[in-house]
Amino acid sequence: MVAAVHAAEKRDLTRLRPAEFARLPEVNAPIDLEHYDRDLLAAAIFHETNRWRAKLGLPAFRHLPKLDDAADVQVTYGSLMPELSHSNLLPAQARPMDRVVATGLRPGRVAENVALTPVFDTGEETPFVVHGAGAERKFLNADTGRELEPHTYASFAARVLGQWMNSPGHRANIANRALRYLGCSARSVRNLSGTHSLFAVQAFFTPAPPDAR
């Protein structure tokens, strides 16, 4: 019964008020990349995006689960071929518009943001060294020798939104008043060094007008 309730809560995380979501203990827990909660991570990005919308005096994005699915198509592709791109080699889902149409939605406007962000909460890019191997492996700050800590769900969402808001093209999508709905997804990517980044995608959408052909 507890597990069933928890699953239902996860499905409705985007319906929570931002303050309610921020108070959830798991939102401020470190991301364990072996067992991380993808629904929680997507919801954290969604709520952080709406926090920025509120700061800009814009209406909040509304959530559509189908847009999570569209975002996840590109996230899955990007996690296998980690490059920042809005295209992929799947013929029917090659472009952001294709991915949204494939969910059954009828778009008037579509936009997409992508990011590849380190999972370690280091602020700016920080050189690191690897100590040990296998399960005992640790990633240490090369300057201080201190072990690097993974982002929490909340701090990762803040970090990736900071990246997007500092990029004119990505910021324009987030601040676009004509875009009304948002879906998000993120997956872990292991780098050659053995460290992890998170590949994150936002899928934005406005439906076509009823009389559009």
Can you describe this structure?
It contains seven helices and six strands. With 213 residues, the protein is of the alpha+beta class. The strands form two sheets. The chain has a four-stranded mixed sheet, with helices on both faces. Strand 3 (128-131) and strand 4 (138-141) form a beta hairpin. Helix 3 packs across helix 6 and helix 4 (65-80) packs across helix 5. The longest helix has 18 residues, at 38-55. The radius of gyration is 18 Å and the shape is globular. The N and C termini lie far apart (47 Å).
Give the gist of this structure:
The protein is α+β, with helices and mostly antiparallel strands and 213 residues long. The protein contains seven helices and six strands; from the N terminus they run H-H-H-E-H-H-E-E-E-H-H-E-E. Strand 5 and strand 6 form a beta hairpin.
